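Subject: for your reference before the review

Hello V.,

The reviewers asked for a structural picture of the protein, and I figured it would be easier to keep everything in one thread rather than splitting it across files. Below is the amino acid sequence we used in the manuscript, unchanged from the supplementary table.
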Amino acid sequence: MELSTVLYYVGKPRKDSRVIENTAKGLVDDEVVLNATHKIKEACIEYKRSLLTGDMKRISELMETYWRSKLETNPHVASPEILDAYDFALQNGCTAAKISGAGGGGHMVLFTEFEKRHQLVSALEAKEGRVVPFKFVKHGVDVWRQ
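And here is what came back from the structure prediction:
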């Protein structure tokens, strides 16, 4: 699984600090947002099952469902840079992605087939952001700087 995952830093700061606040408001006021949130929950439950069985194809399908549903929760959940990076990654071997944080910038976790990982990494290294080395750990998060 680790070798089918790429961590990519888009590098643009968030422009709207109220993304989470506005999304939460939409849960009360907007049925589309509420339904999208239910789709996200269902995808996450199935994602866990697929993760435990190592079904990368299904994981990618579920992450795509998650992504499209997340975009329905708030038009500002992903910055133009994130949307551009996502589309670029899909054109270069990515099968799905997960944004980290409120979506205005920062990191994306990209999924790919192991055979296409090098193609994806090479293409991303030519863009503005950068591929970040990482390793799965069994306990929480370890952070280090090079």
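For the response letter, the relevant points are probably these. Helices lie at 19-29, 31-53, 56-73, 80-91, 117-125. The radius of gyration is 15 Å.

Happy to draft the paragraph if you're swamped.

O.
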